[in-house]
Amino acid sequence: MRFLWPEMLWLLLIVPVLIAGYVYALYQRKKSAIRYASLMLVRDAVGPHLAWRRHVPPALFLISLTAAIFAVSRPSATVILPAEFMTVVLAMDVSRSMLATDVAPNRITGAQQAARAFIEELPKNIRLGIVSFAGTAALVQAVTDKREDMLAAIDRFDLQRGTATGSGLILALSVLFPNDGIDLESILFEGGYGGYGGWGGGYGGGKAIDRAKKKPPAKEIRPVPVGSYTGGVIVLLSDGRRTTGPDPVEAAKMAADRGVRVFTVGFGTKEGASMPGSWGGGYSYWMRLDEESLKAVAKRTGGEYFHASNAQDLKQVYEHLGTKFALERQETEVSALFSAGAAALMILAALLSMLWFQRRI
User: Fold this and answer.
1) CATH 3.40.50.410 occupies which residues in the chain?
2) Which range has the worst mean pLDDT, 69-73, 83-87, 96-100?
3) Reduced to 3 DSSP states, what percent helix, strand and coil does the chain have, rounded to the nearest 5?
4) Pairing of strands 305-308, 262-267
5) pTM for the full predicted model
6) Closest by alpha carbon to 85, among 227, 229, 232?
7) How far apart are CA 165 and CA 314, in angstroms?
8) What pLDDT digit, counting tens, does each position of 129-187 carry?
9) pLDDT digits over 198-234, tens only?
């Protein structure tokens, strides 16, 4: 808990002063009791069962005063509330390794089935954008709240060569922050297939005619606390290692600086899978999860890493994520709670004083 007006807490010094005054008043009352011929008269008048009652109203008054001082100091706390609005960007790996059959019937089919179930169960207050990445990244579906458009986008996945995990993450981030001036052109195209030499066809093979157009200046970003952004999150699913494009762990810093959480999902068996090659001479190659990078991305951004070895596991991961997106942590001022508590205690003190002693405190 923190206070927006912490200087008002100095008023708490009034409390020990009042306690000292109350103790002094009791002492003075005790001194005056010796004027009675017999202390038994006082005991009989008050009654032994009422001795503790006289301290209850003043104690409630002091507690209510303390609560009131906290209220004027404007306390705030991080609470979990239903999310009013959130954007989720789903970044899906569509590299050729998604044809591996260690997940029946293959990885891409299992991922699509789980993604459809995830979309169908999304809360109504969640909007979704979909990004795919292989040798580069592409926006498959702009942010929308129309479920039919999301489902149609899942069916449009086109498997390609390469795995540019960092490119997919950066493009997903630009979907969340379209006005930040992220230079996607140089990140996604000019870098080319660093790990594949001349492979890749049209990816990174040249510059468009309109490349000479002036680029919008990049927005200066002042880092915010990790995971503090409540307007959206990124869910990144990959089944293999990066082969080209920017380092995903370095790309995660861009998300962390903006407070965006990235939830990463490693899909496929941890042992890896052999993929028969349908290009480059027909040889087979071995694909294996890069859990270290996916875990590092999640940790750096305040997200979580999940592993799914089959379609059912992936569906459960998505269901778990869906519950997270329905709720969000918010920094909320709780002055009203302290004010209500102070008023209730003050009223209770007055009522007890009138009920027990037929007088006001």
Assistant:
1) 83-309
2) 83-87
3) 45, 20, 35
4) parallel
5) 0.63
6) 232
7) 19
8) 999 999 999 999 999 999 999 999 999 898 998 899 999 999 999 999 988 888 887 77
9) 333 333 333 333 444 455 566 677 899 998 888 889 9
Residues pairing with 155 in the sheet: none
Q: Strands 232-238, 262-267: parallel, antiparallel or unpaired by DSSP?
A: parallel
Residues in the chain: 361
Helices in the chain by DSSP H: which ranges? Answer: 14-32, 39-46, 56-72, 107-120, 147-154, 165-176, 184-185, 248-257, 291-301, 311-326, 335-357
Residue type (1 letter), 221: I
Judge residue 350's burial from the number of C-beta atoms within 10 Å of its C-beta, 0-12 exposed, 13-18 middle, 19 or more buried: middle
Chosen CATH of 83-309 out of 3.40.50.1100, 3.40.50.2300, 3.40.50.410, 3.30.565.10: 3.40.50.410
